[in-house]
Amino acid sequence: MDGHEFSDKQKSYRELMKKYLQCEEELRTVSLKLQDAEQEVERLKCEAAENLRAELETARREIETKDADVETEKRRALELQRHVPQGETRHVNGEKDGVCAEVDSLKAEMRARDVDFKQMEEQLNQLVFYREAELVSESGNGKSTVEELSARVKELEKQAEIQRKCIIRRRGR
């Protein structure tokens, strides 16, 4: 091996070492970033778990409150039922039936009004459509009238120019 080959191999070795050191440095950087990311993931997991626990606790308290309210209403209903004589219960049920019938009647009336409203809306839309058609037709007539008048004005202007030229020629004589 001559000096030139040895020099080339040394140069190649230095380049390889340099490349190796760069890769090693990149590996350290990526490893640090990976560790940071893993720590962030753990932090987010803990935060999510805490939030979930808090939400579950709030939901549990709300359920307990609702259960207590339901039990209170049940006891109140049973108490009222014991104090109301049987005849009055029938009377209350009768009133309830009357109210239900009135609600059904009002619903039917509202449906009828909705139908009437839709019919009136359709009629109004038809009237608007017809009026728009009339206006378009009238504007077409108006355009033709304007065009006719413009043509007549041009014709009169031409005649006026001819007469003006005639007057100028007569004066020039």
Please give a structural write-up:
By secondary structure, this protein is an all-alpha fold. 97% of the residues lie in helices and 0% in strands. It has helices at 3-83, 86-172. The longest helix has 87 residues, at 86-172. The N and C termini lie far apart (123 Å).
Keywords:
single chain; 173 residues; mainly alpha
Secondary structure tally: strands: 0
Helical residue percent band: over 70%
User: Spans of 5+ residues with little confidence (pLDDT < 50)?
Assistant: none
Outline:
flat
User: With helices defined by DSSP (H or I, 4 residues minimum), what is the helix count?
Assistant: 2
SSE succession:
HH
Number of domains: 1
Characterize the biggest β-sheet: none
Computed over alpha carbons, the radius of gyration is: 49 Å
Q: N-to-C terminal Cα separation, in Å?
A: 123 Å
Structural class: mainly alpha
Mean pLDDT: 80
Proportion of strand residues:
under 5%
Region (Disordered): 65-96
Biased composition (Basic and acidic residues): 65-82
